[in-house]
Amino acid sequence: MDRRIRLRHVQAFVEIVRQGSLKRAAEVLYLTQPAISRTMTELEEIVSARLLNRGGRGVSLTPQGEFFHGHALNGLAALAQGLAGLSHEGGRTELSLRVGALPSVAARLMPDVVAELQRAAPHLRLSIADGGHGHLTALLRSGDLDVVIGRLGAPETMQGLSFTQLYLEDVAVVVRPGHPILDNPDLRRIAEFPVIYPTEAAAIYPFVERLLIAHGVLRPQRRIETVSGAFGRVYTRQSDAIWFISTGVVAREIADGRLVRLPFGTALTEGPVGLMTRASLPETNTQLLFRQATMRVITGGVDPPPDGQATGPPRYSTGSAEVR
Distance between CA atoms of 148 and 158, rounded to whole angstroms? Predict the structure, then answer.
């Protein structure tokens, strides 16, 4: 490694990419904009490559920047892991993180993220809570959770929170194998069957409503309102129910054939999934570890399992927006 590269170079580069602009990254790192710009210029001169495209709408990675960014994240994660190990060996307070995960994330993403965290930071004590958007964001605001990962909620539910988009997710409409509607799949036929429908408080509710309106379909009368993955999986498999649910909740069941996704266009239900933290607080080392592990899972930058078999559902459609 070129000995001229300093930790401040790597931290500045990673934060600029995360924030999407030099101005916001400078604010997070308590630097002036000229100072962080100078730091990036130094780094690009040292590596003899342009890492960022700078424009009126923010910054984006060049191909060289994409390559270097993955290594920069791994380097910071390794450093954080080393510091955590020193704290552990020295008998200091162990590192811990309290995570809230919406059902779609708990089922689809969190198992792989936890496995990656155990590899990268074995001394990190992780607590995971699941639940609805309103419940988890309330716990985040009160300080009972350190980070929440899930769908972006309505503006009034996001007050005081920072949201960093990770990927886009849509709503799936699923049934059991052999369901009668599979002979003639038509969204207008859902009224013929029981429907498992999101509650009004659910983050996906307005997206499902938008989908039905666009197709001229009335909200079904025979509906069971819940976003319980445990109930939905069992009831859908043992009945003729049609289930509207975030794709992440049932991605594994669809992949292995236990549930069948109906061939309806659901682009209207796409919404951002991301990390939520309290906007007034700087990112902690444990939050950084969690974010980096999550990004490695989403982008596929993790080591494959020993037997070469995939452990999770298909990868994600990523996004880069950040909302504060």
Answer: 12
Q: What are the residues whose beta carbons fall under 8 Å from the beta carbon of 253, sequence distance 6 or more? A: 174, 233, 259
Contacts 24+ apart (CB under 8 A), 86-92: 87/123, 88/123
Distance of CA 35 to the CA centre of its chain: 31
Q: What is the pLDDT of residues 36-71, one digit of tens each?
A: 999 999 999 999 999 999 887 788 889 898 888 877
Domains of the chain: 1-93 (1.10.10.10), 95-159+275-323 (3.40.190.10), 171-269 (3.40.190.10)
Three-state SS sequence of 43-110: HHHHHCCCCEEEECCEEEECHHHHHHHHHHHHHHHHHHHHHHHHHHHCCCCCCEEEEEECHHHHHHCH
CA distances (Å), 113 to each of 83, 133, 268, 309, in order? 20, 20, 28, 17
Tokens read off for 252 = 């594994």
Is-contact 144 160, C-beta < 8 A?
no
Handedness of CA 243, 244, 249, 254 (dihedral sign): positive
Q: Rounded to whole angstroms, how far apart are CA atoms 288 and 290? A: 5
Which helix H or strand E contains 230, and what residues bound it?
Answer: helix 229-237
pLDDT tens-digit readout, 214-247: 999 999 999 999 988 889 999 999 999 999 999 9
Give counts: helices (H), strands (E), the chain: 11, 14
